[in-house]
Amino acid sequence: MGIKVQDLAFVRFSAPDLDTMESFLTDFGMARAERSAEAVYMRGFDPDQFLHVTHRGDPGFVAVAFEAASILDLEALAKSENASIGKLDGPGGGAVIRLNDPNGFRVEVVAGRAPADRIEVRRAVLANDAYETPRQNTLKRLPHAPSHVKRLGHCVLNVKDFRESEAWYKSRLGLITSDEIDLGGGKALGAFLRCDRGAIPSDHHTLFLVGAGKPKFNHAAFELADFDDLMCGNDWLREKGRHHEWGVGRHVLGSQIFDYWRDPWGHTVEHWTDGDLLDTAWGSRVATVQELMGTQWGPPAPPTMG
Q1: Which end of the chain has fewer CB atoms within 10 angstroms, the N or the C?
Q2: What's the helix, strand, coil split of the chain in %, to 5?
Q3: Farthest-apart Cα atoms in the chain, separation
Q4: Contacting residues for 129 by C-beta, under 8 A, at least 6 apart
Q5: Inter-CA distances, 214 with 105, 160, 181, 183, 185, Å
């Protein structure tokens, strides 16, 4: 029996130097939640205890985790998958089951995590435009500082067989299609999948599966406070000499403003803001590769992307 997950929880990586990873993630806009000799847990300003974990080891992607609606849902999924429920590591406690998808990716499903205190960051300053001018007698002055990561929004995985992977994630985690990418001739490259939360809108995509023929981590995307925050972060990361990959632009599918970077071991991580939110009644659609790779504005995708 499958369940309907509510959101992503976190991603896990491994790296030989925790100091180097923490330094990058701090420049990227996260804050340390907890650290030991063998792992560092990083958070955003939302109440999630952590959203990025790095374990000491050889460089690589370790796992993606999803949030179950309740412990009861987690128990139901564990029973149907013949999986054991364990104690979740890191701050906030909670319970976890660990599965392996058809590509060998580790997929964790968690529940019962205690919330952290929300980190207070600056509120978005009102913006004047040609139609409304709410910002009056208020000067806009932005800090010279990193972006402020709010939460983990989505993860993209390259998979060996899109249909096999799609069936696996939909049947177990209750994900639904937002946009399927049509290659013509009845073939699909992949699909943007979102959480099924009924009348509560979800991000356009929580998981994007790309039928690349070979399993590989593609990227993880983190929501920021607003557009100004994204641009301030772009300046900050450039000044720090970080590896920029693509952006700034606005996607067609998902509509979000994006900015892609590489961590010190080459994993792609995205800053984004202002994405589409869709409830279950919105349904799904079929999109083209041109829409997938195109932008509403901004530079074209580099050959290294994905």
Answers
A1: N
A2: 20, 40, 45
A3: 62
A4: none
A5: 12, 4, 18, 18, 22
d(Cα 269, Cα 259) in Å, to the nearest integer? 9
In this structure, are strands 176-184 and 285-288 parallel, antiparallel, or unpaired?
parallel
CA distance linking residue 293 with residue 290, whole number of Å: 5
* For the chain, domain boundaries: 7-114+148-297
**Rounded to the nearest 5 degrees, what angle is found at the Cα of 32, between the Cα atoms of 29 and 34?**
155
A 10 A CB-CB count for 169 gives 23
What single-letter amino acid sits at 46?
A: D
Q: What percent of the chain has pLDDT over 90?
A: 95
Strand 31-35 and strand 39-43: pairing?
Answer: antiparallel
Give the whole-angstrom CA distance, residue 217 versus residue 212: 11
The model's pLDDT over 24-52, given as tens digits with 9 standing for 90+, comes to 999 999 999 999 999 999 999 999 999 99
Element housing 162 (H / E)? helix 162-173
> Encoding tokens for residue 33?
């939640």
| Fold topology of 7-114+148-297 | 2,3-Dihydroxybiphenyl 1,2-Dioxygenase; domain 1 (3.10.180)
| Dihedral pair phi/psi, residue 74, rounded to 5° | -60, -40
